[in-house]
Write a structure and sequence with these properties.
Helices cover about 5% and strands about 50% of the residues. By secondary structure, it is mainly beta. The strands form three sheets. Strands 6, 11, 12, 14, 15, 16, 19 and 20 form an eight-stranded antiparallel sheet that branches. β2 and β3 form a beta hairpin. The structure holds 6-O-phosphono-beta-D-tagatofuranose.
Length: about 290
């Protein structure tokens, strides 16, 4: 995505401005170390391109940019649950309007912080008072940290994911390492010995993943690293042909150049006590 020509709404600093992307208000970062685009709708990182490299995030050319439904690609923030545990699927954070809290910058990069607080609408869906901060650090690497604070007078449990869509050259020539041996798929536990490769749909919750997941591609010696904290699983997803064809917001061949590697809390297994916080993060880099 070429982020340089988007209409500018306001300039916030040498490196940060607010722009329009169709119906979305987006924060554009153009820094010597990297560029990035972040939508306030969904608190969604749409693009991250380290200097001299390609965009590490895959974004669907058919994504719905109306601000009505979740964006296909980038890093959807799934919260306070993962998957179809309840309605809406993957929670409401990815379709909520976030606020810009602050931005800071130096020679190494830019930090943008967004917030989302409980309100009447969220309380009707999920009856807990909360305060979320999404801290997005754009340097040679992209670090996204989601800090959940309990503002209620009783504990709550939450789950979710930083549902990262990674740009790849060819799914058939892609290999993923570091996810561990055991995974859940359709509620069943499976064991696998080797790296993950793709010849059909893969939708797996790896429950013994290492802190660092690596994506290898035959077309390059460079490795994409995804380093997670605060998670209890890494989800790997590629919809493959049939599902992609049936998705209105993905081109038919879209599945060939994307793979999701997600820093995930499955089963709403993190308990947060009143006035306490928990951080779920993911860091993406290429070397
Ligand atoms: O993280 C994998 C997954 O839960 C898949 O099961 C698949 O449905 C995907 O997320 C996308 O979900 P979405 O609600 O964005 O269509």
């Amino acid at each position: 995505m070429n982020i340089h020509h988007l209409p500018t709404v306001s300039v916030l600093s040498d490196y940060v401005s607010i722009c329009e992307l169709d119906n979305l208000r987006v924060i554009r970062v153009i820094h010597p170390k990297a560029t990035a685009l972040i939508s306030l709708f969904g608190g969604h990182v749409i693009s991250f391109q380290p200097a001299g490299k390609h965009d590490l995030l895959w974004m669907s050319t058919k994504a719905d940019l109306s601000g009505q439904t979740a964006l296909r690609g980038g890093i959807p923030v799934c919260w306070p649950w993962f998957g179809k545990a309840e309605n809406p699927s993957h929670g409401f954070a990815r379709t909520s309007e976030w606020s810009l809290q602050e931005h800071r910058e130096n020679d190494d990069g830019v930090i943008v912080s967004l917030t989302l607080k409980s309100n009447e609408e969220t309380l009707a869906i999920w009856p807990h008072a909360f305060h979320l901060v999404l801290q997005i650090e754009i340097t040679e690497r992209l670090n996204v940290s989601l800090i959940t604070t309990n503002k209620d007078d009783k504990a709550f449990n939450y789950g979710g994911a930083l549902h990262t869509y990674i740009n790849i050259d060819d799914i058939i020539k892609t290999r993923i390492e570091g996810v561990g041996e055991q995974y859940l798929s359709m509620g069943e536990v499976y064991t696998q010995q080797n790296a993950v490769t793709f010849t059909e749909e893969v939708d797996r919750i790896y429950i013994q993943a290492e802190p660092s997941t690596k994506i290898f591609q035959q077309s390059t010696d460079e490795i994409i690293y995804i380093e997670n904290t605060g998670n209890n699983a890494v989800v790997v997803w590629n919809p493959w042909k049939e599902i992609a064809k049936n998705m209105a917001d993905m081109p038919d061949d879209g599945y060939q150049t994307m793979v999701c590697v997600e820093s995930c809390i499955h089963d709403r297994s993190v308990e947060v006590l009143p006035n306490q916080s928990h951080c779920l993060s993911t860091e993406i880099s290429i070397k």
